[in-house]
Amino acid sequence: DIAYISGQFVEQSDAKVSIEDRGFQFGDGIYEVIKLYDGKLFKADEHFKRLLNSADLIRLKVKHTLEELKEIALKVIDKNINNQSGSLYIQVTRGVSPRNHSFNPDLDPTIIMYLLPPQPFPEELWESGVNAVTLLDTRWSYCNIKTTNLLPNILANQEAKDQGAFEGFFVSPDNIVIEGTSSNVFIVKDGIVITHPITNKLLSGITREIVLELAEESFEAKEETYTVEELYDADEVFITSTTKEVLGVIEIDGRKVNDGKIGPITRRLHSSYRKYRE
Ligand code: PDD
């Protein structure tokens, strides 16, 4: 497997970063995951735009344009012709410098790109649905930045797994459902598709955006906050992400949603998503 690291294409096992890389020491970096379908990047421009926006928000100067980043990505894919159905992982860190909390704004960022294998979860999950648990959102005020500083997300995700759940839903102290540990959350109530509006409390998911557009074509859709009680009381619940697409949730905190079956609107949206990305 060939990986890109700061100007070079190397065997993945030879791609190494310094122990003084600020991404390693401080989580001082940003990332994107772009799905590959038949060797083609899905929504590449949107992901690279979000990457450059995350960079701006943490005052990291990426010295490449969106087009240049895309060219590198295409080269990585070209060099890995046997592995083209997973995703492309992109990470940019502020770079290498002697350890210090404050940073030199002119550091050379470390840029890596390599291919991740397809999600390990089986195709049947889209048919059967998954379960989730709610967890207190202990994160910071800039969840709109796709930062590699994922400690709260990985701890919450592990907590969900330890409780036997597929995903954890972050809930604010005032009982609002924010997003999943690595997904956006939607509910359906009385035929209306509802998801949390875009604020600094959550990541503006690219899949979320597409699904909202698809939902508006056939149903009513709203970007509005909803509480845990409304989540429990929903007719349908599903999550969205680049790798999970539209995935039905059939149980939350041990309570069944729609009698433990994926609902009709979730099904419709998953199949329209699949059609859309073909
Ligand atoms: N996660 N919210 C969070 C916190 C996420 O980490 C993700 C994506 C999403 C969904 O965004 P999108 O639809 O653009 O993938 C929402 C990626 C897939 C990951 O970290 O692996």
From TrEMBL:
It catalyses: D-alanine + 2-oxoglutarate = D-glutamate + pyruvate. Its EC number is 2.6.1.21. It is an enzyme of class 2 (transferase). One of its GO terms (molecular function) is D-alanine-2-oxoglutarate aminotransferase activity. It comes from the Bacteria. Gene3D superfamilies: 3.30.470.10, D-amino Acid Aminotransferase, subunit A, domain 2. GO terms for cellular component: cytosol. Keywords: Aminotransferase, Pyridoxal phosphate, Transferase. Its cofactor is pyridoxal 5'-phosphate. InterPro entries: Aminotrans_IV, Aminotrans_IV_CS, Aminotransferase-like, BCAT-like_C, BCAT-like_N, Class-IV_PLP-Dep_Aminotrnsfr, D_amino_transT. GO terms for biological process: amino acid biosynthetic process; carboxylic acid biosynthetic process; D-amino acid metabolic process. The keyword Transferase applies. Acts on the D-isomers of alanine, leucine, aspartate, glutamate, aminobutyrate, norvaline and asparagine. The enzyme transfers an amino group from a substrate D-amino acid to the pyridoxal phosphate cofactor to form pyridoxamine and an alpha-keto acid in the first half-reaction. Homodimer. NCBIfam families: D_amino_aminoT. Belongs to the class-IV pyridoxal-phosphate-dependent aminotransferase family. This is D-alanine aminotransferase.
